[in-house]
Design a protein that fits this description.
The protein is of the alpha/beta class. It has two domains: 125 residues; 158 residues, Vaccinia Virus protein VP39 (Rossmann fold), CATH 3.40.50.150. The structure holds S-adenosylmethionine.
Length: 322
Protein backbone atom coordinates (compact mmCIF):
# COMPACT_ATOMS: atom_id res chain seq x y z
CA UNK A 1 0.00 0.00 0.00
CA UNK A 2 1.40 3.36 -1.01
CA UNK A 3 0.19 6.75 0.10
CA UNK A 4 -1.09 8.88 -2.78
CA UNK A 5 1.21 11.82 -3.39
CA UNK A 6 -0.98 14.52 -1.92
CA UNK A 7 -1.31 14.36 1.84
CA UNK A 8 -2.34 17.94 2.39
CA UNK A 9 -4.25 17.27 5.58
CA UNK A 10 -0.96 16.33 7.25
CA UNK A 11 0.53 19.60 6.11
CA UNK A 12 -2.18 21.74 7.69
CA UNK A 13 -0.88 24.26 10.18
CA UNK A 14 -1.46 22.90 13.68
CA UNK A 15 -3.79 25.74 14.55
CA UNK A 16 -6.23 25.49 11.61
CA UNK A 17 -8.71 23.49 13.69
CA UNK A 18 -8.44 26.07 16.50
CA UNK A 19 -8.77 29.02 14.10
CA UNK A 20 -11.90 27.49 12.49
CA UNK A 21 -13.45 26.72 15.88
CA UNK A 22 -12.89 30.21 17.29
CA UNK A 23 -14.13 31.86 14.09
CA UNK A 24 -17.18 29.58 13.88
CA UNK A 25 -18.11 30.10 17.54
CA UNK A 26 -17.77 33.88 17.19
CA UNK A 27 -20.58 34.17 14.60
CA UNK A 28 -24.12 35.28 15.52
CA UNK A 29 -25.24 31.76 14.55
CA UNK A 30 -22.44 29.69 16.06
CA UNK A 31 -21.19 27.12 13.55
CA UNK A 32 -18.73 24.24 13.35
CA UNK A 33 -17.81 22.46 10.11
CA UNK A 34 -19.05 18.85 9.90
CA UNK A 35 -15.59 17.78 8.78
CA UNK A 36 -14.52 18.12 12.44
CA UNK A 37 -16.83 15.27 13.49
CA UNK A 38 -14.40 12.85 11.96
CA UNK A 39 -11.54 11.79 14.17
CA UNK A 40 -11.17 8.06 14.92
CA UNK A 41 -14.00 8.18 17.47
CA UNK A 42 -16.28 10.15 15.10
CA UNK A 43 -15.66 7.69 12.26
CA UNK A 44 -16.58 4.82 14.58
CA UNK A 45 -19.81 6.58 15.65
CA UNK A 46 -20.64 7.13 11.96
CA UNK A 47 -20.29 3.37 11.33
CA UNK A 48 -22.71 2.76 14.21
CA UNK A 49 -25.18 5.22 12.62
CA UNK A 50 -24.97 3.25 9.37
CA UNK A 51 -26.09 0.12 11.21
CA UNK A 52 -29.24 1.81 12.58
CA UNK A 53 -32.58 0.79 11.12
CA UNK A 54 -33.70 4.45 11.03
CA UNK A 55 -30.71 5.53 8.92
CA UNK A 56 -32.16 4.58 5.52
CA UNK A 57 -29.54 6.37 3.31
CA UNK A 58 -26.75 3.90 4.09
CA UNK A 59 -28.66 0.64 3.66
CA UNK A 60 -30.65 1.91 0.66
CA UNK A 61 -27.55 2.97 -1.27
CA UNK A 62 -25.69 -0.21 -0.28
CA UNK A 63 -28.59 -2.31 -1.59
CA UNK A 64 -28.60 -0.38 -4.89
CA UNK A 65 -24.88 -0.72 -5.56
CA UNK A 66 -24.74 -4.30 -6.95
CA UNK A 67 -27.20 -3.33 -9.73
CA UNK A 68 -25.41 -0.04 -10.33
CA UNK A 69 -22.07 -1.87 -10.48
CA UNK A 70 -23.41 -4.45 -12.94
CA UNK A 71 -24.63 -1.67 -15.25
CA UNK A 72 -21.26 0.08 -14.92
CA UNK A 73 -19.49 -3.19 -15.70
CA UNK A 74 -21.46 -3.46 -18.94
CA UNK A 75 -20.78 0.19 -19.80
CA UNK A 76 -17.04 0.18 -19.06
CA UNK A 77 -16.32 -3.12 -20.83
CA UNK A 78 -14.75 -1.80 -24.03
CA UNK A 79 -14.98 1.83 -22.87
CA UNK A 80 -11.91 1.87 -20.64
CA UNK A 81 -9.15 0.32 -22.79
CA UNK A 82 -6.35 1.05 -20.30
CA UNK A 83 -8.37 0.01 -17.28
CA UNK A 84 -10.13 1.96 -14.56
CA UNK A 85 -8.85 3.96 -11.63
CA UNK A 86 -11.41 4.52 -8.87
CA UNK A 87 -10.99 7.61 -6.68
CA UNK A 88 -13.29 7.67 -3.65
CA UNK A 89 -14.01 10.95 -1.84
CA UNK A 90 -14.87 10.67 1.88
CA UNK A 91 -14.03 6.97 1.80
CA UNK A 92 -14.79 6.19 5.47
CA UNK A 93 -14.77 2.46 6.22
CA UNK A 94 -14.76 1.50 2.51
CA UNK A 95 -17.92 -0.55 3.00
CA UNK A 96 -19.33 0.42 -0.41
CA UNK A 97 -16.51 0.21 -2.93
CA UNK A 98 -16.48 -3.61 -2.68
CA UNK A 99 -19.68 -3.73 -4.77
CA UNK A 100 -17.85 -1.90 -7.58
CA UNK A 101 -14.67 -3.96 -7.27
CA UNK A 102 -16.63 -7.20 -7.51
CA UNK A 103 -18.40 -6.19 -10.77
CA UNK A 104 -15.84 -4.07 -12.59
CA UNK A 105 -13.25 -6.45 -13.93
CA UNK A 106 -10.73 -3.88 -15.11
CA UNK A 107 -10.07 -1.74 -12.01
CA UNK A 108 -6.29 -1.36 -11.72
CA UNK A 109 -5.95 1.13 -8.89
CA UNK A 110 -7.96 2.67 -6.09
CA UNK A 111 -7.30 5.98 -4.33
CA UNK A 112 -9.23 6.53 -1.08
CA UNK A 113 -9.46 10.13 0.10
CA UNK A 114 -10.49 10.93 3.67
CA UNK A 115 -9.68 13.37 6.45
CA UNK A 116 -9.85 10.77 9.24
CA UNK A 117 -6.34 9.38 8.94
CA UNK A 118 -6.11 6.40 11.30
CA UNK A 119 -9.53 5.13 10.23
CA UNK A 120 -8.64 5.47 6.54
CA UNK A 121 -5.36 3.58 6.91
CA UNK A 122 -6.94 0.67 8.75
CA UNK A 123 -9.82 0.47 6.23
CA UNK A 124 -7.28 0.40 3.36
CA UNK A 125 -5.35 -2.41 5.06
CA UNK A 126 -8.51 -4.52 5.26
CA UNK A 127 -9.29 -3.85 1.59
CA UNK A 128 -5.73 -4.73 0.66
CA UNK A 129 -6.07 -8.12 2.31
CA UNK A 130 -9.21 -8.76 0.20
CA UNK A 131 -7.94 -7.45 -3.17
CA UNK A 132 -4.25 -8.34 -3.34
CA UNK A 133 -3.88 -7.48 -7.04
CA UNK A 134 -5.29 -3.98 -6.60
CA UNK A 135 -2.97 -1.03 -6.17
CA UNK A 136 -4.45 0.88 -3.18
CA UNK A 137 -3.52 4.46 -2.28
CA UNK A 138 -4.82 6.11 0.90
CA UNK A 139 -4.85 9.89 0.56
CA UNK A 140 -5.25 11.93 3.75
CA UNK A 141 -6.76 15.12 2.40
CA UNK A 142 -9.49 17.69 3.07
CA UNK A 143 -11.66 17.31 -0.04
CA UNK A 144 -12.95 20.88 0.25
CA UNK A 145 -9.50 21.87 -1.03
CA UNK A 146 -8.09 21.28 -4.53
CA UNK A 147 -6.12 18.09 -5.03
CA UNK A 148 -3.74 17.02 -7.81
CA UNK A 149 -3.41 13.31 -8.50
CA UNK A 150 -0.51 11.68 -10.32
CA UNK A 151 -1.05 11.63 -14.11
CA UNK A 152 -2.79 8.48 -15.36
CA UNK A 153 -3.82 7.05 -18.72
CA UNK A 154 -6.55 5.02 -17.09
CA UNK A 155 -10.19 6.05 -17.17
CA UNK A 156 -10.93 7.73 -13.88
CA UNK A 157 -14.14 6.93 -12.02
CA UNK A 158 -14.73 9.17 -9.01
CA UNK A 159 -16.94 7.69 -6.29
CA UNK A 160 -18.71 9.90 -3.74
CA UNK A 161 -21.30 7.80 -1.89
CA UNK A 162 -23.23 8.44 1.31
CA UNK A 163 -24.86 11.70 0.20
CA UNK A 164 -21.88 13.49 1.74
CA UNK A 165 -22.42 16.08 -1.03
CA UNK A 166 -25.53 17.08 0.98
CA UNK A 167 -23.32 18.43 3.77
CA UNK A 168 -22.42 21.32 1.47
CA UNK A 169 -24.67 24.25 0.64
CA UNK A 170 -25.59 24.13 -3.07
CA UNK A 171 -22.92 26.78 -3.71
CA UNK A 172 -20.24 24.77 -1.84
CA UNK A 173 -21.43 21.61 -3.64
CA UNK A 174 -20.83 23.33 -6.95
CA UNK A 175 -17.29 24.31 -5.89
CA UNK A 176 -16.66 20.72 -4.77
CA UNK A 177 -17.94 19.32 -8.09
CA UNK A 178 -15.73 21.68 -10.09
CA UNK A 179 -12.68 20.81 -7.97
CA UNK A 180 -13.47 17.09 -8.34
CA UNK A 181 -13.66 17.60 -12.13
CA UNK A 182 -10.25 19.26 -12.13
CA UNK A 183 -8.82 16.49 -9.92
CA UNK A 184 -10.22 13.66 -12.06
CA UNK A 185 -9.83 15.34 -15.47
CA UNK A 186 -11.99 16.08 -18.50
CA UNK A 187 -13.93 13.02 -19.70
CA UNK A 188 -13.70 11.31 -16.33
CA UNK A 189 -16.74 9.92 -14.52
CA UNK A 190 -18.27 10.46 -11.09
CA UNK A 191 -20.60 7.99 -9.39
CA UNK A 192 -22.35 9.97 -6.69
CA UNK A 193 -24.97 9.03 -4.10
CA UNK A 194 -27.49 11.76 -3.29
CA UNK A 195 -30.37 11.72 -0.82
CA UNK A 196 -33.84 12.57 -2.17
CA UNK A 197 -36.60 14.77 -0.75
CA UNK A 198 -39.17 12.75 1.17
CA UNK A 199 -41.74 13.09 3.99
CA UNK A 200 -40.26 14.88 7.03
CA UNK A 201 -41.22 12.01 9.39
CA UNK A 202 -38.77 9.65 7.68
CA UNK A 203 -36.06 12.31 7.69
CA UNK A 204 -36.57 13.35 11.29
CA UNK A 205 -36.43 9.70 12.47
CA UNK A 206 -33.20 9.09 10.56
CA UNK A 207 -31.37 11.85 12.43
CA UNK A 208 -32.97 11.32 15.87
CA UNK A 209 -32.41 7.63 16.57
CA UNK A 210 -33.76 6.37 19.91
CA UNK A 211 -30.40 4.81 20.85
CA UNK A 212 -28.83 8.26 20.83
CA UNK A 213 -25.95 7.32 18.50
CA UNK A 214 -26.49 10.38 16.29
CA UNK A 215 -26.46 12.54 19.42
CA UNK A 216 -23.10 11.02 20.46
CA UNK A 217 -21.74 11.59 16.95
CA UNK A 218 -22.90 15.22 17.07
CA UNK A 219 -21.40 15.82 20.53
CA UNK A 220 -18.13 14.20 19.50
CA UNK A 221 -17.09 17.52 17.97
CA UNK A 222 -17.22 19.06 21.46
CA UNK A 223 -15.26 16.14 22.92
CA UNK A 224 -12.73 16.60 20.16
CA UNK A 225 -12.34 20.29 21.02
CA UNK A 226 -11.83 19.30 24.67
CA UNK A 227 -9.26 16.64 23.73
CA UNK A 228 -7.31 18.48 21.06
CA UNK A 229 -7.78 22.17 21.86
CA UNK A 230 -7.82 22.16 25.62
CA UNK A 231 -11.52 23.01 25.73
CA UNK A 232 -13.81 22.54 28.72
CA UNK A 233 -17.22 21.85 27.15
CA UNK A 234 -19.48 20.00 29.59
CA UNK A 235 -21.34 17.65 27.27
CA UNK A 236 -24.37 17.30 29.57
CA UNK A 237 -24.96 21.05 29.15
CA UNK A 238 -25.68 20.61 25.42
CA UNK A 239 -28.49 18.73 23.65
CA UNK A 240 -28.57 17.17 20.19
CA UNK A 241 -31.20 18.87 18.04
CA UNK A 242 -31.91 17.72 14.46
CA UNK A 243 -34.88 18.74 12.32
CA UNK A 244 -35.94 18.99 8.68
CA UNK A 245 -36.00 22.58 7.46
CA UNK A 246 -38.60 22.31 4.70
CA UNK A 247 -38.01 25.83 3.38
CA UNK A 248 -34.48 25.00 2.26
CA UNK A 249 -34.86 21.22 1.93
CA UNK A 250 -32.25 20.16 4.45
CA UNK A 251 -31.81 18.41 7.76
CA UNK A 252 -30.03 20.69 10.20
CA UNK A 253 -28.09 19.36 13.17
CA UNK A 254 -27.43 21.63 16.10
CA UNK A 255 -26.07 21.40 19.64
CA UNK A 256 -28.29 23.47 21.90
CA UNK A 257 -27.00 25.03 25.09
CA UNK A 258 -29.22 23.95 27.98
CA UNK A 259 -28.19 26.91 30.16
CA UNK A 260 -26.37 30.20 30.13
CA UNK A 261 -22.70 29.22 30.31
CA UNK A 262 -19.11 30.07 29.41
CA UNK A 263 -16.73 27.67 27.70
CA UNK A 264 -12.96 28.10 27.47
CA UNK A 265 -11.01 26.88 24.46
CA UNK A 266 -7.24 27.35 24.46
CA UNK A 267 -7.53 30.62 26.36
CA UNK A 268 -10.57 31.94 24.42
CA UNK A 269 -13.86 32.40 26.25
CA UNK A 270 -17.12 31.63 24.41
CA UNK A 271 -20.42 32.74 25.92
CA UNK A 272 -23.66 30.78 25.42
CA UNK A 273 -27.13 31.96 26.30
CA UNK A 274 -29.77 29.39 27.29
CA UNK A 275 -31.25 27.82 24.12
CA UNK A 276 -28.53 29.18 21.83
CA UNK A 277 -27.24 26.60 19.36
CA UNK A 278 -24.13 25.61 17.45
CA UNK A 279 -25.08 24.61 13.89
CA UNK A 280 -22.96 21.52 13.23
CA UNK A 281 -24.27 19.97 9.99
CA UNK A 282 -26.58 20.38 7.04
CA UNK A 283 -27.81 17.46 5.01
CA UNK A 284 -29.49 18.70 1.84
CA UNK A 285 -32.08 16.52 0.08
CA UNK A 286 -32.39 16.93 -3.67
CA UNK A 287 -35.10 16.44 -6.26
CA UNK A 288 -33.40 14.56 -9.15
CA UNK A 289 -33.96 17.40 -11.63
CA UNK A 290 -32.47 19.93 -9.24
CA UNK A 291 -29.36 17.84 -8.61
CA UNK A 292 -28.89 17.14 -12.32
CA UNK A 293 -29.04 20.90 -12.95
CA UNK A 294 -26.56 21.66 -10.14
CA UNK A 295 -24.18 19.09 -11.63
CA UNK A 296 -24.64 20.52 -15.13
CA UNK A 297 -23.87 24.03 -13.95
CA UNK A 298 -20.71 22.63 -12.31
CA UNK A 299 -19.46 21.03 -15.55
CA UNK A 300 -20.87 17.51 -15.13
CA UNK A 301 -23.33 15.86 -17.54
CA UNK A 302 -25.73 13.16 -16.32
CA UNK A 303 -25.15 9.76 -17.96
CA UNK A 304 -27.48 7.70 -15.86
CA UNK A 305 -29.67 7.91 -12.76
CA UNK A 306 -30.63 4.98 -10.55
CA UNK A 307 -33.43 5.34 -7.97
CA UNK A 308 -34.51 2.62 -5.54
CA UNK A 309 -38.12 1.44 -5.79
CA UNK A 310 -39.25 3.73 -2.93
CA UNK A 311 -37.31 6.71 -4.35
CA UNK A 312 -35.49 7.09 -1.04
CA UNK A 313 -32.05 7.51 -2.59
CA UNK A 314 -30.49 8.39 -5.94
CA UNK A 315 -27.18 7.34 -7.52
CA UNK A 316 -25.95 9.31 -10.54
CA UNK A 317 -23.26 8.58 -13.08
CA UNK A 318 -21.90 11.92 -14.28
CA UNK A 319 -19.20 12.75 -16.81
CA UNK A 320 -16.97 15.81 -16.61
CA UNK A 321 -17.48 17.70 -19.84
CA UNK A 322 -15.71 20.93 -18.97
C1 LIG B 1 -21.11 10.67 5.75
S1 LIG B 1 -19.56 9.82 5.87
C2 LIG B 1 -19.67 8.74 4.45
C3 LIG B 1 -18.75 7.56 4.54
C4 LIG B 1 -18.85 6.57 3.39
N1 LIG B 1 -18.39 7.18 2.15
C5 LIG B 1 -20.25 6.05 3.21
O1 LIG B 1 -20.87 6.34 2.18
O2 LIG B 1 -20.74 5.31 4.08
C6 LIG B 1 -18.46 11.09 5.32
C7 LIG B 1 -17.01 10.66 5.16
O3 LIG B 1 -16.29 11.76 4.57
C8 LIG B 1 -15.15 12.08 5.36
N2 LIG B 1 -15.02 13.54 5.31
C9 LIG B 1 -15.86 14.47 5.82
N3 LIG B 1 -15.43 15.70 5.54
C10 LIG B 1 -14.28 15.54 4.83
C11 LIG B 1 -13.37 16.45 4.23
N4 LIG B 1 -13.56 17.77 4.30
N5 LIG B 1 -12.33 15.94 3.53
C12 LIG B 1 -12.14 14.59 3.44
N6 LIG B 1 -12.96 13.68 4.01
C13 LIG B 1 -14.02 14.16 4.68
C14 LIG B 1 -15.43 11.56 6.75
O4 LIG B 1 -14.26 11.26 7.45
C15 LIG B 1 -16.30 10.33 6.45
O5 LIG B 1 -15.50 9.19 6.28
Amino acid sequence: MQYAESRDARELPDNEFLADVILGLSQDQKTLSPKYFYDQQGSEYFDEICDLQEYYPYRTELAMLPTVAQDLGNYFTGNAPRGLEIVEFGAGSLRKVGALLRSLQNVRSFTAIDISEAHLISACRVLESQYRELSIHPCVHDFTKPLSLHPSERTRLGFFPGSTIGNFTPQQASVFLRNAGTTLGTGSFLLIGVDTQKPPTILNQAYNDPKGITAKFNKNVLERINRELDGNFKLHNFAHHAFYNETVGRIEMHLRSLKEQQVNIAGHTIEFSRGESIHTENSYKFKPDDFTELARQSGWVKHHLWLDSDKLFAVYLLQYAH
